[in-house]
Amino acid sequence: MVGAKLQGSAAERAESESEIFRCDKGWEMRAFQLTRCAQCHNLDASEGNKIGPNLHGLFGRKTGQVEGFSYTDANKQKGITWKEETLFEYLENPKKYIPGTKMAFGGLKKGKDRNDLITYLREETK
User: Fold this and answer.
1) Around Cβ 105, how many Cβ atoms within 10 Å?
2) Is the dihedral of CA 17, 123, 110, 92 positive or negative?
3) pTM listed for this prediction
């Protein structure tokens, strides 16, 4: 099923693509790439910041704390610690969770997609 040519309406294709990636072993990694996270963020400690801060060590870190990254005052002042629960809420709608953030990503509306991404980030940002 992976890599199958998709047919039908845009909605059917989107649903089919979603099912394909969930069935594939590497789904969480592709979730990071497909949601465009990788365009703005690095995960490895040896890599620097991009448009967004490096996510290495994300879990347990407070908002606005990555050395060398220029955060908005909103991010610095949010004062929460990143953990599964805070990321779950944030990733649904970043601009609603932190009004004034410069993060351009619109969010992941489906809870399963957020959970998969958080699972991946939990492992890859240690």
Assistant:
1) 17
2) negative
3) 0.73
